[in-house]
Amino acid sequence: MPGTATSYPKHKIKVLLLESIHPTAQASFRDDGLNVAVRSSALGEAELAEAVADVHLLGIRSKTRVTEAVLESARRLLSIGCFCIGTNQVDVAAANRRGVPVFNAPFSNTRSVAELVLCEIVALSRRLADRSRSMHEGKWQKGATGSFEVRGKTLGIVGYGHIGSQVGVLAEAMGLGVVFYDVMPRLPMGNNRGFKSLGEVLAKSDFVTLHVPATPQTKGMIDARALSTMKRGAYLLNLSRGDVVDIGALARALGDGSLGGAAVDVFPEEPESNAEPFQSELRGLPNVILTPHVGGSTEEAQEAIGKEVAGALIKFLDSGATTGAVNFPEVEPPQLRGRHRILNVHKNVPGVLGDINRIVGEVRANVESQILATDPEIGYLVMDLNQSVSDEVRERMTELQTNIRTRILY
Q1: What pLDDT does 2 receive?
Q2: Which of 119, 134, 172, 393 has an alpha carbon 20 to 30 Å from 323's alpha carbon atom?
Q3: Burial letters 40-49, b for 16+ CB under 10 A, else e
Q4: Which one of 61, 131, 241, 407 is the catalytic residue?
Q5: Comparing C-alpha atoms, which of 323, 371, 368, 367 is closest to residue 344?
Q6: How far is residue 175's CA from residue 153's CA, in Å, rounded to a whole number?
């Protein structure tokens, strides 16, 4: 709802975008009348804490770390937008406790990552990286030894979510058989087949591609033992999270010939900027494709991410909608018409709603609609009521000991 009036003037609402977020996001915020500041790089904790002191909306990518200390300094912060898939760079629990929803873009780069996976499967099976490097060194090494078609081979997908299932569709179209494993029940696409265990997928696949989130359960899941269950000469691809694979174990498996090659886009430790050197045990190994965390880095994906996350932040700002937030009760309130809207975040303890309804009753407010959603820590109440008493209701709600944050829209 571009241009929607709120109780706080739009031109005073400050947006800070870091890490060269796509211009489509900047345009979306400016079109809504917001005050936008842009920085091309990530900020360290101390610098970020200072920068967000009076910021209302913060946009970041994967390098910025939003810690509890940063959130403590960001007393005006209403919401955070992660212009990427992951949100592990944000202390989402601390943001939840402060009533700050965190949004991301879980779908926008799906196709870009899936296409790169298919590209790397072919490149590994034909040893294209090694052959290209040799040509640049002036060496002509023509031959078919060690090169294979991917048709008829088996691709194992670990993590069959949005990206994994898209990979399965594309791989099947290229003639690969597709098997997958996921901790959640998933509907197979096409002729893709789900297996009951990770070990079964690893043992049966010629190529294994990882598409799992960063969780305590996935950390180091592909270790020396897991690698030893893979077919000799198989290939491993990781375009998910850097700490999913034991890099040392992978380097040893490649070095002794247990694996035929690997493609790795994410690493346990990554340079903070393009000016810093990249260090890894995988450097210099044969038939290993190393890319600098660019799985979703296409113009199309970044433009889509810019629109998706900016749209979610603006919608939250203008209506209080939290659909898609990763750390917050989800509500999708109707468009506000002729009423004032109070947005209240409170501790999820018994008696809160009774206290709020008592306030509403004492001021004789006419409540048009009331939506409450909760999680174990907080409750989120969206209430539309008559304009004449809205300011008094808001003020009295902020005085409750259970109140975390209350704002008003009109």
Answers
A1: 44
A2: 393
A3: eebbeeeebb
A4: 241
A5: 371
A6: 8
Q: Which of 313, 337, 317 is nearest to 325 (CA)?
A: 313
241 catalytically annotated: yes
Q: Which of 39, 98, 293, 405 is catalytic?
A: 293
Exactly one of 172, 200, 270, 377 is catalytic; which is it?
A: 270
Sheet containing 35-38, strands listed edge to edge, beginning at the edge strand earlier in sequence = 35-38, 14-17, 57-60, 79-82, 102-103
Active site residue 19: no
Write 352-355 long-range contacts (CB < 8 A, 24+): 352/379, 352/400, 352/402, 353/379, 353/381, 355/400, 355/402
The answer to whether 270 is a known catalytic residue is yes
Specify the pLDDT at position 338.
Answer: 87
**Span 203-226, mean pLDDT?**
96
What would the two tokens of residue 209 be? 């591609």
Average pLDDT, the chain: 95
Sheet containing 403-409, strands listed edge to edge, beginning at the edge strand earlier in sequence: 367-374, 378-385, 340-347, 403-409
pLDDT tens by residue, 77-111: 999 999 998 899 999 999 999 999 999 998 899 99
Place of tokens 């999270």: 241
Beta bridge partners of 193: 179
- Domains annotated for the chain, with CATH where assigned, are 1-109+298-328 (3.40.50.720), 110-290 (3.40.50.720), 333-410 (3.30.70.260)
Please state the rounded mean pLDDT for residues 163-169: 98
| Cβ(320)–Cβ(314) below 8 Å | no
Query: Which of 225 and 106 is assigned the larger pLDDT?
Result: 225
- Statement: residue 295 has pLDDT above 50: yes
